[in-house]
Amino acid sequence: MSKYAQPDRRPAVITGASSGIGAETAKALAAAGLPVALGARRLDRIEEVAAAIRADGGEAVAHPLDVTSDDSVAEFAAKAVADLGDIEVVVSNAGVTHPGATVDVATETFAGQVDINLLGAHRILRAFGPGMIERQRGDLVFLSSDVALKPRPFMGAYAASKWGLEGMVNALQMELEGTGVRASIVRPGPTHSDIGNEWPAELGGFVLEQWVRWGLARHPHFLKAQALADAITTVVTAKRGVHISTIDVNPEAPVQEPR
């Protein structure tokens, strides 16, 4: 096989695959013909998603994964490779945000978000990246956020982690040039997902009011997770020789009546 060709079989790993963007991405990649390994802390949820994929004719496995644990990441990686073979695609999607005034958020809580959103992505990179470099092919996709461009109030830790993530990936892209491995950033705008669902209603309302105050919520539409899954599928199925390095996905504003 030419080093510029993609193999027929491209096993993929998706972290944070128990719901939202991760679950929809697993389904989309499986529908595109990629075997998928789902990882998340909620094993029951990822097993349900994997079963649904298999029922639709796809190939899917599910294993527990805590991206804050070196041991958990190593164990997950070993099981994914044992089940599916060398991993060709990694979608680093696991993430969390807990709102609060930056001055009030406990440092432990702040660090916990950075650990999942940034250091967790690096642990996943370390688990799968070296093999891709050795094989001279592969896709590493990192889910960022529009807060990396415009931080939102009362989401300081989340913004810091996503700024850090994009800094890491931009450096990685330069380091990987000429290796055959593509590192990409997918940057969602406001999206319906489990992130934020656990916020108390009054807190969520207050945070949204602050977004409006600072011009960060120009209209009420949110993306569906499927939109991000479609974007990720486009990135990783691009032909060799094409690198979609960064892609922004935003909800379209409601159509206005003519004045």
TrEMBL record:
Question: Could you name the domain of life of the organism this protein comes from?
Answer: Bacteria
Give the Gene Ontology MF terms in alphabetical order.
Answer: oxidoreductase activity
Q: Which PROSITE patterns match?
A: ADH_SHORT
Question: One GO term of the cellular component aspect?
Answer: membrane
Asked if Cell cycle is a keyword of the record, the answer is: no
Q: Oxidoreductase as a keyword?
A: yes
* Gene3D superfamilies, A to Z: NAD(P)-binding Rossmann-like Domain
What are the entry keywords? Answer: Oxidoreductase
- Pfam families per the record? adh_short
Among InterPro entries, the record links this protein to: NAD(P)-bd_dom_sf, Sc_DH/Rdtase_CS, SDR_fam
Q: Which family does it belong to?
A: Belongs to the short-chain dehydrogenases/reductases (SDR) family.
PANTHER family, alphabetized: DEHYDROGENASE/REDUCTASE SDR FAMILY MEMBER 7B (PTHR44196), DEHYDROGENASE_REDUCTASE SDR FAMILY MEMBER 7B (PTHR44196:SF1)
User: What's this protein's name?
Assistant: NADP-dependent 3-hydroxy acid dehydrogenase YdfG
Species assigned in the record: Nocardioides albus
